[in-house]
Amino acid sequence: MRKKVTLKQLAKELNLSISTVSKSLKNDSEISEKTIKRVHELASFYNYKPNALAVSLKSSKTKTIGVILPEILNHFFAEALFGIEKEASENGYKIVTCITNESHKKEIEYVEMLNYSSVDGFIVALSQETQVVNDLSHFEVLKRDNVPMVMFDRVTNDIDCDRVIVDDMEASKNAIQHLINTGCKKIAIITSISALSVAKLRIEGAREVTAMNPDVSLIELFVKDGDDIESEIEKFLENHNVDAVLGLDETSAAICVNMSIKLGRKIPEDISIIGFADGLLSQHSYPKLTVVSQHAKDLGRRAAQILLNQLINFSEDYKTTTEIVKTSLILRDSTLRQ
Amino acid sequence: MRKKVTLKQLAKELNLSISTVSKSLKNDSEISEKTIKRVHELASFYNYKPNALAVSLKSSKTKTIGVILPEILNHFFAEALFGIEKEASENGYKIVTCITNESHKKEIEYVEMLNYSSVDGFIVALSQETQVVNDLSHFEVLKRDNVPMVMFDRVTNDIDCDRVIVDDMEASKNAIQHLINTGCKKIAIITSISALSVAKLRIEGAREVTAMNPDVSLIELFVKDGDDIESEIEKFLENHNVDAVLGLDETSAAICVNMSIKLGRKIPEDISIIGFADGLLSQHSYPKLTVVSQHAKDLGRRAAQILLNQLINFSEDYKTTTEIVKTSLILRDSTLRQ
DNA sequence: CTGTTAGCGCTTTCAC
DNA sequence: GTGAAAGCGCTAACAG
Fold first, then answer.
1. Residues A82-96 pLDDT 10s
2. What's the rounded Cα separation, in Å, for the pair B335 and B338?
3. Which of A74, A325, B157, B192 is 20 to 30 A away from residue A102, measured at CA?
4. Residue A338 pLDDT exceeds 50
5. CATH number reported for the structural domain that contains residue B42 in this entry
6. Is the pTM of this model over 0.85?
7. Domain assignment of residue A34, yes or no
8. Residue A22 CB closer than 7 angstroms to strand D?
9. From CA B288, how far away is CA B73, in angstroms rounded?
10. Which residues, by CB, come closer than 7 Å to strand C?
11. Cβ of B137 < 7 Å from strand D?
């Protein structure tokens, strides 16, 4: 099928040895100007490109990063992937993308598939199932083999690796504090992802701030997987006359906006809404949603930078870091009282 | 850093030759039961896995597909990627994902990067710039080398390869016809991607149907790259008292909904809206948007299936096909008169 | 300045 | 039943 020019063929045609051709292509000072020129000319005539596989086998570097994501339809991860891909490609690395669909089993399969030896390192966000069952043996194997790895967003402290996260607790505190500052007294937090590490931190932050404000009450709605989110939220909003909602994930937040409108609640006069969301969803909702931006693209970029740094300047006694990317509250018209 | 067990080491430890070990692991009938057992035991003790690079170099198959996408933040492509990844991984293939960001130059770089020889085949959706300048030489090189390739959604007829597309013209016709059937007389088509092949087909379809209905008028708004889409659309809706809009891309459609509300137009009493959109955006807009679904996931899956079929049963005289995936109009509450 | 050689880890043919 | 040897395409140490 595909027949590609090799050093061997160039060498034969030029009546040179393979190694001379190889060195010439690298403009090795050992080789005469004239030979270098001849070699380059024939090489570009045939559009010669070294076989990446052979180079990798020799050098045991693939210039490839394995990226393991729980989802891709979620805008957060799409954006993170975008950041990772950008950083990687700018540094001459490719990425192979694996989507676990929140499955622990698939995560294990992917890690095993990529470890032999098609990638130089990993960037991973844990699947929901992995976080629930808390079985990390597949990553322990990687660490034992000293494979560079950085986790982002969905991380664990049980594996010693670099981490890039958002300060979810702080972000949540700020959001709740902002609601309190603008006069809200009866605040709801709503989410369908309460099992995730990130959601737990957001919940904790919300509780902490409300605990410090005795005149403010906090009501929590955790929609279970499989429940009909829309109707659960609608019911909840009907039964609890809250004056503010913090949606802990994009979907919950967007649904809160729509259901409030449906129930005839005026935003922001009757109800203030903030969401953890970055996506188009919130930019194009009406009214536009005030959001806690997690800067997913930056998270991804940063994770890639840290990994690339490890790949390029590897040293035996590497110290692991946890980097916290700042979130920000992006105020958008009219989901908040002034 | 990473020290992996090789056949060589197993062979040494077992006092066997490399080839015997290799055959044993494949349960070759030439080898004695006893040896096979010993080998398997030691192999699983060391958790031996063959080095993928070496296998690939030998077989010149990488079990990897190169996926070249113009964007990933666009839900359509995220969904297509999801479909591709799913199909690929179910068949033991990995994907390397490249995002051109609509740049022709990056597209060329990626194709060259992957062609030597890290992927077995390509799945590509052309970048906007490539469609505009219509320079396809990088793909011609691939075809000359007989590299399996399938294009989807953003395709060209100038390269002889498999294609998976949506019948954009038909879809557009159906949408416009639906608007006409529900009594709309002054219809607008709005888009910010008028340069793309897909948009051109949608425009053509709309024109064709309206031409056949003399009492219906069609008004077109093509927002240029770089313009402020929101205000352009707002201005347009203010100046043209249309009773229906077909948004040719998700963003345009969502903005039409929001701007109509902002301008006090009642949906669907004053204005009916349909959009080419699959995303959460439309599912969670309020009122929910009626959409032409492009079934992006199926497009991706199908593209992958066709490519995998080529990779697995390759024959010299392969006939190229263009497959058309059906679209469907998904009616959602209240953006359309009944 | 150029060539020989060994080797990355594996598969496969051919001897023994 | 088992092993030696060649080769995938490349790099690099070492000879000449």
1. 999 999 999 999 999
2. 9
3. A325
4. no
5. 1.10.260.40
6. yes
7. yes
8. yes
9. 21
10. A 15-20, 23, 28, 30-35, 54, 57-58, 60; B 4, 6-8, 18-19, 22-23, 25, 50-51, 54-55, 57-59
11. no
